[in-house]
Amino acid sequence: MKESSNANGLMRLLSVYLVILATMLLPCCSRCQGDADSSSPSGTSGNPGDSGNPGSSDSSSLSPKPFATDSFKYSLTGKTGRCDVYLDYPVSGPQHLVASVKEWMRNTLFENDTAHVADDPMLLVRAYCDERQQVLSKTLEQMGISSVSKDDAPEEGMEIRLVCANDRFVTYEVYRYSYITHGAHGEYSDYGVTFAAADGHRLGNVVQGMDSLLYVHVREGLKTYFEITSDAKLEEICTTDLSLMPMPTFPPYLVRDGVRFHYSIYDICPFDWGDPVFTIPYDIMQPYLTDEAKAVLGNF
């Protein structure tokens, strides 16, 4: 009995010793696991000596800033009517691209010389509304109208919105609205403009022209816009001769999913049907693109 008791005591001492030893080793194991978790995504341990290599986290700060905008809007109501403007104004990005977009934006907003307008978006939108008020006043004067009612007051408006920005191109859409007075409805236009990200130049025509093959895809795009499936119904809606399908007044432009066609009011249908717009995917449009468009898109 005494020998059995001594054996049991020895086993208890051994158990206590093993617990203490495991407790001492546990932090070491935890630190080893922590080092493994901090390895690079490829599964190999990061090497501080590689920090200067291209593609490392330190070199990412050298990458050009992506094209980005901030929104600015302004409204002005005066004796001659109301003016509204909205801008997605460039605030960062490749210098040549930002400068090109800003210059185009100023030329789009103003009919007169813009040298006096500072490179400040809030001053820009205010200057636009001030100028349009002056234009409205002169127009009413030429029409011999000395005053207008609140319900029939002239309106002017413009929106310049960013619709697509990537490492190949940047595209804006412009919406312009004008209502003078005593009219059944105002006039408006919608169109798009694309800039090459590489050097900031504004693209010209991105489509070579209408032919019998592209014509088929344009007809399908129009039917999608009008929510119809019948060619006969399309012929009924459109006022133009569809056997001589025209290109839009404003050239098609590049967007994320393909080439966008935006017909102006009266281009092919009455005012009540609006301004048809649809996008034809790039895989279909590839044979019809201009060399300039292909160079910008690359393997996009």
Brief summary:
With 300 residues, the protein is α+β, with helices and mostly antiparallel strands. It is built from 7 helices and 8 strands; from the N terminus they run αββααβββααβββαα.
Shape category: flat
Helix and strand sequence: HEEHHEEEHHEEEHH
Distance between the termini: 88 Å
Strand order of the largest sheet: 1-2-3-4-5
Secondary-structure content class: alpha+beta
Number of helices: 7
Helix content: 25-40%
Mean pLDDT across all amino acids: 80
Query: What is the oligomer described by this structure?
Result: single chain
* Biggest sheet statistics: 5 strands, mixed
* Gyration radius, in Å: 33 Å
Number-wise, the strands total 8
The low-confidence runs, each spanning 5 or more residues with pLDDT under 50, are 1-10, 16-60
Give a structural overview.
The protein has helices at 2-37, 95-109, 121-142, 212-226, 231-237, 282-285, 291-297, and strands at 68-78, 81-92, 155-165, 169-179, 187-196, 253-254, 258-262, 277-281. The chain is α+β, with helices and mostly antiparallel strands and 300 residues long. A five-stranded mixed sheet has the order 1-2-3-4-5. A three-stranded antiparallel sheet has the order 6-7-8. A hairpin with a 2-residue loop joins strand 1 and strand 2 (81-92). The longest helix has 36 residues, at 2-37. It is flat and about 55 Å long. Residues 1-10 and 16-60 have low confidence and may be disordered.
